[in-house]
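User: Study the chain.
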Amino acid sequence: MSISENVQHVHQKMKQAYEKTEQNKQVQLIGVTKSVSSEVAAELLKAGVTALGENRPEGLADKQAALGRTACEWHFIGTLQTRKVRQVIDRIDVLHSLDRLHLAEEINKRAKQPVDCFVQVNVSGEESKQGIHPTDIHSFLHEVGQYPMIRVIGLMTMAPLTEDEQTIRSVFRSLRHLRDEVAARHLPHAPCTELSMGMSSDYEIAIEEGATYVRVGTVLVQR
């Protein structure tokens, strides 16, 4: 299929998953372009994708040089090294990987305006994954409150690479419950109304479990 057909197919799958839920918030599709060229990214935009996600500062810079800073919403979805904050933070609309206080401190120092962030949570407990432990999220958010340039709009996680749907669903559901706990606190610096979860292999399950942002790459760009 063409990229345009891929985008239409994913939107249809998203709509079907969304209709199984009771939520009233639409789901934002982020086209992950970390492994494709600027030309392919441009095709995604032409096909109606309005947000692109990159995981490396160099990739972000290359895509923005080719497409323009205002071509779409720009999301940084990879681990952000503290020493590279300066290269990224004023070039993106949303950061999906806030996972340590030192990073928050550096963002606060470098950002020229408040940054919308997702706190990355390691719900599955896998050693290979980054993120805050679920039991530490409330204390982490308390500490983040000292940095006025950080605005926590939601939580992010990645499910294990498994074909066990119930395991995947359990991880996403746990993050939703944690998000609800945080949102109920009505923290000024952390409204935490959003959920970033779900990738090419599991975005439909993520939407069924309450995702408001899905990060999809492979199924959008495969030919």
Notes: The chain has nine helices and eight strands.
